[in-house]
């Protein structure tokens, strides 16, 4: 098999997204094409430098990577008695070259698939092919965020159209009201896990309906409910058409909860509602009540008229699945309530988030004490191989041995205490220097000018996440004089790096970004406060590896989990956070908390 063919097979599987030695091969083929495509391996392979591809040294590296890939893909699965799971989510953060994500929900989902692949869980994932992805961020002359959407070229990414045995695209149909909408699907291979992405953007459908699957989190309520019908009902029908045997349906947030109505339609002559509940589990992430999708009753009954007819139920009965009080004709239909009512178990994404969710939905279980509301918690983790920088892998392998294969064993991490202080400090300095080089290069290509006098020897603070108002990005600068003193001490140099997007409809979040940009131009902060444009997974990886301190100061308890601080630890960085999200479970009163004297309150 030629090196090109081996690279083609590797490039067709997202395994490369957590194997940097494979990614480095594709970058070497054509660095310009690789960078321009958002780090897409297949784009680089298409424009490969023949001198590189024909090199004997390069071929040997390809052989080693391909052998590792084959060994991984042929790895033994878990006991076949483990239930097969369908994992539904609106967004998946797998790699920056595939912008199918906006924030933490998608990053969790992507890490979930990779972790399932690593341990051999029988999991099949379902999402939507967001051809335009999430937006690219740039700024106008008044520091106002602008958005640009660039369509994903399927030929430059490991996307495979799902076909039947005769080579014809598999088509399933859903109804939006009484109007049929045809859906095809694209497959992404994520290690040993398959992800299927539903797509309405092809010539079976009228143009105005083809755009339904193009963009993430559109503001129109009609568009949103239709996307959720596509994901939930269309996803189940796709699995059935492909003859996928599924034991458990995992709904990651309420966007996909309409799948329960499709399951109920299938169960009409057998288990009914209890049969559906026995197969479904539900995860809620949203501690802000306004963040849960709610739809006007007339919109629900008009868009679901055919499935309601198949179920043989009244408007009131249909709406009751998404209402606290079925008799309240004015109450909106809430997708989270549908998910909770039709699942055998539900969980938040941290211990604190579980407590918040029980209080949040207590009115749905008014006959029970708050502590008996049936919502537990499973605290989010991260997929370490995705977020560990190449330098981290090398450093940790020296001192911890095969940490990657044994990363769930506490004994492996206990060896960290044996690392010599000077070696640990050298490691931190190396990672910081790599970040500084990245920032210098990145800021030269941004849409706005800022002074970047970044210091590789300065204490570097990182703040990168969605610019939602509750995350309070500018809080560091609440007292400008104090902030100026902290950042201007020549004996203790400090600098702070920001990155993040605000949703195009979130004017408050966009105002917070403008405030940060204003601060970057103030005399006291010029060159010491840096904003990186167009936040994505690549920027995230660089920041969590190179920053010395990771700052997290949301309004408690609005950070459901927030796992970026977990990614800092493997790089020897410090998580500095209020006690929100996962951090109350990680804090031991000695390892980094804001307002330390009040950390037990």
Please describe the topology of this protein.
Blueprint: H1 3-11, H2 20-29, H3 31-36, H4 41-46, H5 50-53, H6 56-73, E1 85-88, H7 104-119, E2 123-128, E3 136-139, E4 145-148, E5 159-161, E6 172-176, E7 179-190, E8 193-199, H8 207-210, H9 221-241, E9 248-252, H10 259-266, H11 272-277, E10 280-283, E11 294-295, H12 297-303, H13 305-311, H14 315-320, E12 333-334, H15 335-341, E13 345-348, H16 351-360, E14 376-377, H17 384-387, H18 390-400, H19 410-414, H20 421-443, E15 459-464, H21 480-487, E16 494-499, H22 507-520, E17 529-532, H23 537-546, E18 549-552, H24 564-569, E19 574-577, H25 583-586
Parallel strand pairs: 1-2, 1-9, 2-8, 9-10, 10-13, 13-14, 15-16, 15-18, 16-17, 18-19
Antiparallel strand pairs: 3-4, 5-7, 6-7, 7-8, 11-12
Helix pairs in contact: 1-6, 9-10, 20-23
Protein model, in words:
By secondary structure, the chain is of the alpha/beta class. The chain folds into three domains: 3-73, no CATH class; 81-254, Glycogen Phosphorylase B (Rossmann fold); 384-598, 3-Layer(aba) Sandwich (Rossmann fold). 38% of the residues lie in helices and 15% in strands. Strands 1, 2, 5, 6, 7, 8, 9, 10, 13 and 14 form a ten-stranded mixed sheet that branches. Strands 17-16-15-18-19 form a five-stranded parallel sheet, with helices on both faces. Helix 1 (3-11) packs across helix 6 and helix 20 packs antiparallel against helix 23 (537-546). The N and C termini lie far apart (63 Å).
């Amino acid at each position: 098999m030629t090196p090109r063919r081996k690279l083609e097979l590797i490039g067709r599987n997202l395994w490369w997204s957590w194997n940097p030695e494979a990614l480095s091969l594709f970058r070497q083929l054509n660095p310009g094409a690789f960078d321009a495509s958002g780090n897409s391996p297949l784009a680089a392979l298409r424009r490969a430098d023949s001198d590189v591809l024909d090199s004997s040294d390069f071929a040997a590296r390809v052989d080693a990577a391909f052998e590792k890939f084959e060994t991984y893909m042929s790895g033994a699965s878990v006991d076949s008695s483990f239930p097969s799971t369908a994992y539904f989510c609106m967004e998946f953060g797998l790699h920056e070259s595939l912008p199918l994500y906006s924030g933490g929900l998608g990053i969790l989902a992507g890490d979930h698939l990779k972790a399932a692949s690593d341990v051999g869980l029988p999991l099949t994932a379902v999402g939507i092919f967001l051809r335009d992805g999430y937006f690219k961020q740039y700024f106008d002359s008044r520091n106002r965020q602008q958005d640009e959407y660039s369509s994903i070229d399927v030929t430059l990414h490991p996307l495979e159209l799902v076909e039947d045995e005769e080579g014809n695209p598999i088509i399933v149909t859903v109804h939006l009201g009484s109007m049929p909408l045809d859906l095809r699907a694209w497959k992404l291979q994520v290690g040993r896990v398959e992800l299927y992405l539903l797509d309405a953007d092809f010539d079976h459908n009228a143009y105005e309906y083809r755009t339904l699957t193009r963009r993430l989190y559109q503001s129109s309520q009609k568009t949103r409910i239709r996307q959720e019908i596509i994901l939930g009902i269309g996803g189940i029908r796709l699995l059935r058409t492909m003859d996928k045997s599924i034991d458990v349906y995992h709904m990651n947030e309420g966007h996909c909860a309409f799948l329960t109505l499709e399951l109920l339609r299938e169960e009409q002559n057998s288990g009914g509602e209890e049969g559906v509940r026995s197969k479904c589990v539900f995860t809620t992430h949203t501690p802000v009540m306004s963040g849960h999708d709610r739809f006007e009753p007339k919109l629900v009954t008009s868009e679901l008229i055919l499935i309601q007819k198949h179920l043989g139920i009244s408007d009131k009965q249909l709406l009751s699945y998404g209402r606290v009080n079925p008799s309240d004709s004015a109450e909106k239909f809430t997708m989270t309530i549908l998910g909770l009512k039709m699942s055998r178990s539900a969980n938040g994404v941290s211990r604190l988030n579980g407590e918040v969710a029980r209080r949040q939905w207590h009115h749905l279980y008014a006959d029970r004490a708050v502590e008996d509301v049936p919502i537990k918690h499973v605290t989010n983790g991260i997929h370490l191989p995705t977020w560990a920088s190449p330098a981290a892998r090398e450093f940790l392998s020296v001192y911890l041995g095969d940490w990657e294969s044994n990363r769930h064993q506490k004994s492996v991490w206990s060896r960290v205490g044996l690392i010599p202080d000077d070696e640990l400090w050298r490691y931190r300095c190396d990672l910081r220097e790599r970040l500084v080089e990245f920032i210098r290069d990145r800021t030269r290509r941004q849409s706005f000018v800022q002074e970047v006098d970044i210091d590789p020897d300065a204490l570097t603070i990182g703040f990168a996440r969605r610019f939602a108002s509750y995350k309070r990005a500018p809080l560091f600068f609440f007292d400008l004089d104090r902030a100026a003193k902290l950042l201007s001490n020549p004996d203790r140099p400090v600098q702070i790096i920001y990155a993040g997007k605000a949703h195009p409809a979130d004017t408050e979040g966009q105002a917070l970004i403008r405030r940060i940009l204003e601060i970057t131009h103030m005399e006291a902060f010029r060159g010491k406060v840096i904003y990186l444009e167009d936040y994505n997974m690549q920027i995230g990886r660089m920041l969590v590896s190179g920053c010395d301190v990771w700052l997290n100061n949301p309004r408690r308890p609005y950070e459901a989990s927030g796992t970026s601080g977990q990614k800092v630890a493997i790089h020897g960085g410090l998580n500095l956070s209020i006690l929100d999200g996962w951090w109350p479970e990680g804090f031991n009163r000695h390892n980094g908390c804001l307002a330390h004297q009040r950390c037990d309150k």
